[in-house]
Specification:
Number of helices: 27
Shape: globular
Mean pLDDT: 92
Strand order of the largest sheet: 1-6
Number of strands: 6
Radius of gyration: 29 Å
Number of domains: 2
Helix content: 55-70%
């Protein structure tokens, strides 16, 4: 569209920048494992592009008086739209508004990545996008390889000539980090949160670099693409991520089958195999095999053991079949119990709602092993992203989400068998399909699609396939038809542009507030995890909630921090926090998280203390109200409890207040079965001995 070149140039440049920085963006002031900044980029960048699109639409067809809605779209577009619609709808009935809202914004960001990869379609631009990915992924790979060998920033400075002089000349450089900048939870991870997420991203992007090698038109491009391919493959091996390795093997098998049954692709690949490209691939393989022989010394790092890092590649490969029984049993429990969740909630529990709702189903069909579910930990993710989409979006939304990706198989086939496609297009669609397939297979046993980087690029790649399908398939299948309305076109487009701009402004402000809250949340989390619940911790969590009250992590620990605070216990505990303060925070916490057994137990304890105080004051009617609430919270907590003695003990104490001595005994017995040395249960069981001797309580 030469008449509106400004739009396409600006939009393609903006999306290109987003693609380049997504794998490396990091907010150093908010060391966030989840990488909120990358989600912000997609949400805000996508809405900015949407606003720009409506401005372009306003200029494009000024002669038209009425609005025509382009509703004739490929099947994949409709699946994306249905997925987003159900993501929005589930907010109204979802299990947790804070989670539902946050993950819907993320889904909307992915959908915008898909939309503009499709709408801005241009073959050369797609190649350039992959080159940009090669740059940022190569940075990740180099960083990950250095982490694998446990290289420190000090060692890098010592190895670089004149680095010491620069550090002395510019003192600020002395505090800069390269290796430790991204603060991974499990290295080697490059710029990702952990090594498994980095590995899954390598599985998706390595086929794209193979595409660059196959289509390189000169030796310089071949060399550069070979470097990206080699670095990414070495990094994949160094992650020691078995799930990603299995996914990579599945991609190789799928590629061989596809080549065998798809004659146009087979002929195209054979035609592009020249001597220099064969040498490049062979050289890459030799380097990868040589690099795989090295061992990491990350077995011990800062006192923390990183499992699997002391194994060789062959040992890790053979251990795929020997996955730890506890780990496998935990993931199977999530999936099997997930079926029950879906059957009881066919319309879904809302995006991000799995974490909130799972406690109700932790033993619905099979008991979740203790490491995967207990008083202080519960699963945030199912470790099966495709199935989790069904649980959270419901049957219809989950099916649309699945078909969105499955449809790329049909589209790629039609692109490659079309007489309109040249060799470059066939190879691009083939290797893009391999990247999509690798990520989708990986997501069946892990949670890469719950994190920011992978799904954004994955949805963009589906947009690339869809665009090639529209442009090159012989008879692309469209569903729907264009609708000519009687609405004035100019006014309608201005309205759409205004809505997009308002949404952009609102989401930008919402994300800014979330970041402001997270600045205080991270220190609060760190202090709380070390058991330091003092005045500083209270200040940090209160400021976090004041800045942004919809952060699920802040809401979860708010009541926990207040319950753990002991006024006057140290000079750092000067605040006069009462049970009324604690109760207020806990009630707010369970408002959107009703199945948090720790908060329910804490509420029951507060009600029991209030009951005891009122009994001492001879105010029996009020005491009766509080003990009934204690029983309510205790019974709810017991339904969610399996391994720990806390819930049955609290409930037993509440029963004693109302004279239900037999029920109290039964719960104390259960508590002692779970922990025979639990002091509160032993104490109250001792109090019941006279009643047992009298026969009023039957053991």
């Amino acid at each position: 569209d030469e008449a509106h070149k400004w739009y396409f140039t600006t939009a393609r440049l903006a999306l290109s920048i987003m693609v380049f920085i997504l794998p490396i963006a990091y907010d150093h002031f908010v060391p966030e494992v989840a990488g909120d900044l990358r989600w912000y980029i997609m949400q805000i960048g996508g809405l900015a592009l949407l606003t720009l699109f409506f401005i372009f639409s306003y200029e494009k067809n000024k002669k038209e008086k009425t609005l025509t809605l382009n509703c004739k779209q490929p099947f994949t577009v409709w699946m994306a739209l249905i997925t987003v619609i159900f993501g929005a709808l589930t907010i109204s009935w979802g299990a947790s508004l804070p989670n539902n809202w946050w993950f819907f914004k993320n889904l909307f960001g992915y959908a915008l990545m898909f939309t503009f990869a499709l709408q801005l379609r241009h073959d050369t631009w797609y190649r350039n996008l992959i080159w940009l990915l090669a740059l940022s992924v190569s940075f990740n790979a180099v960083l990950g390889i250095l982490q694998f060998f446990n290289v420190t920033d000090a060692e890098i400075v010592a190895a670089i000539p004149l680095a010491s002089w620069f550090a002395e000349t510019f003192p600020s450089l002395q505090t800069m980090k390269f290796i430790g900048f991204f603060q991974q939870s499990a290295p080697p991870a490059g710029a990702f949160a952990n090594k498994n997420l980095a590995a899954s991203f390598m599985v998706m992007t390595i086929p794209l670099f193979a595409y660059l090698m196959f289509t390189a038109k000169n030796n310089i491009r071949l060399a550069l693409s070979s470097i990206a391919f080699t670095l990414a493959t070495i990094f994949l091996l160094y992650t020691r991520s078995r799930g990603s390795w299995v996914s990579a093997c599945a991609v190789i098998v799928f590629a061989l089958i596809w080549i065998a049954i798809n004659k146009p692709v087979r002929q195209t690949i054979i035609a592009h195999f020249s001597l220099n490209k064969s040498v490049a691939f062979l050289t890459s393989i030799i380097i990868v095999l040589w690099a795989s022989s090295f061992q990491s010394n990350l077995g011990k790092h800062g006192g923390q053991n990183f499992h699997s890092m002391s194994t060789t590649v062959s040992e890790q490969f053979t251990s795929v079949a020997d996955i730890q029984k506890g780990e496998l049993a935990t993931r199977l429990a999530y999936n099997i119990n997930g079926v029950d969740m879906l059957l009881e909630n066919p319309m879904g529990v809302g995006l991000g709602g799995f974490h909130t709702i799972y406690p109700k189903y932790f033993n619905s069909s099979v008991v979740t092993p203790h490491p995967g579910y207990n008083l202080s930990a519960r699963p945030r993710r199912m470790h099966n992203d495709m199935f989790q989409a069904f649980v959270e979006l419901g049957v219809i939304g989950g099916l649309a989400h699945l078909l969105f990706f499955v449809s790329t198989l049909v589209m790629a086939w039609k692109i490659q068998t079309s007489s309109k496609s040249d060799d470059t297009v066939k190879i691009l669609s083939f290797f893009t399909l391999l990247g999509i397939g690798g990520m989708c297979v990986n997501s069946l046993g892990d949670f890469p699609l719950q994190m920011p980087t992978a799904p954004g690029i994955l949805w963009l790649l589906v947009g690339v396939i869809t665009a090639l399908y529209i442009k090159y398939a012989e008879k692309p299948w469209f569903i729907g038809k264009n609708i000519e309305t009687k609405l004035p076109r100019e006014a309608s487009v201005i309205t759409f542009a205004s809505i997009a701009f308002v949404a952009l402004s609102f989401i930008t402000y919402d994300n800014y507030q979330r970041r402001e809250g997270t600045l205080y949340l991270k220190p609060a989390l760190g202090l709380s995890r070390t058991g330091t619940n003092n005045d500083t911790t209270i200040y940090m969590i209160n400021k976090s909630m004041e800045k942004y009250a919809l952060n699920p992590r802040a809401r979860e620990i708010w009541g926990v921090i207040y319950m753990s605070y002991k006024p006057g216990s140290t000079p750092q505990h000067k605040l006069m926090i009462t049970d009324a303060d604690r109760k207020e925070k806990l009630l707010e916490a369970i408002k959107y998280d009703p199945n948090a057994q720790n908060n329910l137990i804490n509420l029951a304890m507060i009600e029991l203390r209030a009951t005891q105080n009122l009994v001492n004051m001879k105010n029996i009617p009020e005491a009766d109200k509080h003990v009934k609430k204690a029983i309510e919270y205790g019974e709810r907590a017991l339904e969610l409890s399996y391994y720990t003695p806390n819930a049955p003990t609290v409930l037993a104490i509440a029963y004693l207040f109302v004279g239900k001595n037999q029920e109290a005994y039964n719960n104390l017995k259960l508590a002692l079965e779970r922990n025979p040395q639990y002091p509160p249960a032993l104490e109250y069981m001792e109090r019941l001995k006279p009643l047992i001797e009298k026969g009023e309580v039957k053991p």
